[in-house]
Specification:
The chain is α/β, with parallel strands linked by helices. It contains eleven helices and twelve strands. The strands form four sheets. Strands 4-3-5-12-6 form a five-stranded mixed sheet, with helices on one face. It has a three-stranded antiparallel sheet with strand order 10-7-11, covered by helices on one side. Strands 1-2 form a two-stranded antiparallel sheet.
Length: 321
């Protein structure tokens, strides 16, 4: 392709291509770009003519990318990321006046204990900044590569090898056992037998491996799961009035202990703590708005880390039978 032909391909067309490939729907791509469906259809027609390829073809009720379209997705997204990071790097950012939407992916545990207070504080500090918080999903690598994600907050050890992202550690937390306050079998200490055999309520969100699963593997403990939840926050709520046991993040357990009537106990085996970190695309490194966001999350994490709540459970923490 001659450079002279590039005048037929403007930036809006590349943005339309990216939206069409992400949505694989003309209607949804139009919504994403805040344009009418006829305008998006016209953009698709221009793209087809320029690349001499249908790009999206119908298979049944779905539109799927052609081989040529699949070859174009990554280089076009890379080009758009470069343009975006270059433009933003030359701008200043004022949280009091700028308008922007940040998308963060985090568990409900992180949302409750870290982000909830931060987002409340930012209502006054950044009145025009909007936040979208998504639950953890298995496609976080793809979402970040497509610039659909500003921050991922996730345990460091669960991030797959080869994940291309910058990162910073946030805070650590222990895993502790939790049972009903008046559990009929568990006394002041959790025994090894109880740890291995009590009916267990687990978190199994997004079809991804969890820190709790890794700890059981490290111990060589094969735990039968009585109840599997898609929410960390639901785990402690399932315990009152049951024989169930859960392995909870200690800060989450302490948050709910008095509210729902549960007891926290040290596991009978030493368990390594987990560490939450935030991850972002290298292309966002120099973006002033993104730098502000990262600094505020780090500050909130420092406050959380400095709070009492990640120490060994003593007798005062345990409701005796």
């Amino acid at each position: 392709m001659d450079r002279e032909q590039l005048h037929r391909l403007d930036l809006n067309l590349l943005l339309s291509f990216d939206a069409l490939m992400a949505a694989q729907s003309v209607t949804k791509a139009a919504e994403r770009m805040s344009v009418g469906q006829p305008a998006m259809s016209a953009s698709l027609a221009r793209l087809r003519k320029f690349f001499n390829d249908p790009l999206l073809v119908r298979e049944g009720r779905l539109l799927v990318p052609t081989v040529r379209a699949l070859q174009l997705i990554e280089p076009i997204r890379d080009a758009l990321d470069t343009i975006e990071s270059t433009v933003r790097a030359n701008r200043t950012f004022d949280p009091q006046t700028d308008r922007r939407t940040f998308t963060v992916m985090a568990s409900d545990y992180v949302l409750l204990l870290l982000l909830r207070r931060l987002l409340s504080e930012l209502e006054g500090e950044a009145p025009n900044i909007r936040f979208v918080v998504r639950p953890i999903s298995a496609d976080f690598r793809e979402q970040m590569s497509r610039s659909q994600l500003d921050l991922l907050i996730y345990p460091e050890e669960l991030v797959p090898e080869g994940f291309q992202a910058n990162s910073a550690g946030l805070f650590t937390d222990r895993l502790v056992c939790a049972v009903d306050r008046n559990h009929p079998e568990v006394g002041e200490r959790m025994t090894e037998e109880q740890f291995r055999t009590l009916p267990y309520v687990s978190y199994g969100g997004a079809s991804l491996r969890t820190v709790s699963e890794l700890r059981f593997l490290e111990l060589g403990v094969d735990r039968p799961i009585e109840i599997g939840t898609q929410s960390f926050v639901i785990q402690p709520l399932m315990l009152p009035g049951s024989r169930l046991m859960a392995l909870l993040h200690e800060r989450l357990g302490r948050y709910f202990a008095d509210q729902v009537g549960i007891r926290l106990l040290d596991p009978p085996f030493p368990l390594r703590p987990m560490r939450e970190a935030m991850f972002w695309s290298p292309g966002a490194e120099a973006d002033p708005g993104h730098q502000w966001l990262r600094a505020r999350v780090l500050r909130a994490a420092e406050v959380l880390e400095n709070q009492a709540g990640s120490h060994h459970i003593d007798d005062a923490d345990v409701s005796h039978r």
